[in-house]
């Protein structure tokens, strides 16, 4: 246990929120997606918590450079929780890398699904329809109103989620660590994340075979007559599992697998 408590101020947490809001996708890439955005947004937090411990400082940066991707506004609740967890860890709480990464990887998929559905799939089209309807009439207020409404609705939601995450993480860590709740939360979040990713894979990985097998006078469509009857979406599942195998077991780069 460190003799001197390391305490983040509200200003530290809010500063991280603004850095995340404006730069979460500044270095978005297929290797780590939003990971560098996480590190950049938390850079002053990491320095404050671990600045006097060079090894812990480097370990924290390395910990948050792992693959991370979520919807940045609703998913900000995860970042808030992680900041609180890092604060507790810096003060001696037995929070391991696996616990922090488990929270991130377990929750990023569900909150990406929630955020994309409510924000990009619902609210944005409604606001666009409103702004475009004004714009096509020659009213320059169309794009202006759209922009103002986007920021006017987005920022309060994102700020609330971020601060709520920090509040939950800060107040709940000790009670969670004292029981089996943490394991339950991680298992539940991981299971939910796996289900969401599985559903997304089934929806977005589209692969089919045009091969037709001729046996005498009989013609069999490989996709419709054989594969679909064995297991629906067998080829997309095979591609997905093969990709996972190359990334996890063979340590292929994601960009290599894409090609």
Keywords:
259 residues, mainly alpha, two-stranded antiparallel ribbon, globular
Show the helix and strand layout:
Layout: H1 10-23, H2 35-50, H3 54-63, H4 76-90, H5 97-135, H6 141-177, H7 181-204, E1 212-215, E2 218-221, H8 222-230, H9 234-248, H10 254-258
Antiparallel strand pairs: 1-2
Distance between the termini: 48 Å
Structural class: mainly alpha
Strand composition percent: under 5%
- Shape from CA axes? globular
SS summary, helix count: 10
Cα radius of gyration in angstroms: 23 Å
Characterize the largest beta sheet: strand count, sense, and whether it forms a barrel: 2 strands, antiparallel
DSSP summary, beta strand count: 2
The percent range for helix content is: over 70%
What can you see in these coordinates?
It is a single chain. By secondary structure, the chain is mostly helical. It has ten helices and two strands; from the N terminus they run αααααααββααα. The protein has a two-stranded antiparallel sheet with strand order 1-2. A hairpin with a 2-residue loop joins strand 1 and strand 2. Helix 5 packs across helix 7. The termini are far apart. The model has no long low-confidence stretch (mean pLDDT 84).
Question: How do you describe this structure in short?
Answer:
The protein has ten helices and two strands.
């Amino acid at each position: 246990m460190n003799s001197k408590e390391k305490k983040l101020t509200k200003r530290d947490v809010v500063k991280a929120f603004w850095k995340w809001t404006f730069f979460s996708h500044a270095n978005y890439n297929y290797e780590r997606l939003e990971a560098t955005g996480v590190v950049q947004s938390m850079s002053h937090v990491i320095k404050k918590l671990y600045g006097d411990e060079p090894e812990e400082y480097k370990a924290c940066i390395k910990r948050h450079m792992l693959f991370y991707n979520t919807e940045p506004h609703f998913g900000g609740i995860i970042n808030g929780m992680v900041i609180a967890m890092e604060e507790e860890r810096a003060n001696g709480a037995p929070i391991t890398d696996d616990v922090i990464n488990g929270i991130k990887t377990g929750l990023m998929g569900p909150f990406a699904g929630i955020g994309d559905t409510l924000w990009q799939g619902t609210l944005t089209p409604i606001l666009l329809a409103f702004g475009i309807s004004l714009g096509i009439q020659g009213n320059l207020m169309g794009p202006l109103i759209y922009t103002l409404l986007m920021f006017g609705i987005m920022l309060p939601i994102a700020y609330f989620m971020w601060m709520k995450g920090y509040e939950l993480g800060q107040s709940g860590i000790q009670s969670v660590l004292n029981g089996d709740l943490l394991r339950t939360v991680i298992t539940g979040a991981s299971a939910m994340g796996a289900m969401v990713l599985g559903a997304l894979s089934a929806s977005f990985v589209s692969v089919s075979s045009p091969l037709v097998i001729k046996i005498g006078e009989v013609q069999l469509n490989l996709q419709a007559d054989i594969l679909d009857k064995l297991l629906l979406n067998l080829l997309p599942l095979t591609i997905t599992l093969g990709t996972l195998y190359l990334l996890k077991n063979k340590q292929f780069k994601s960009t290599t697998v894409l090609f």
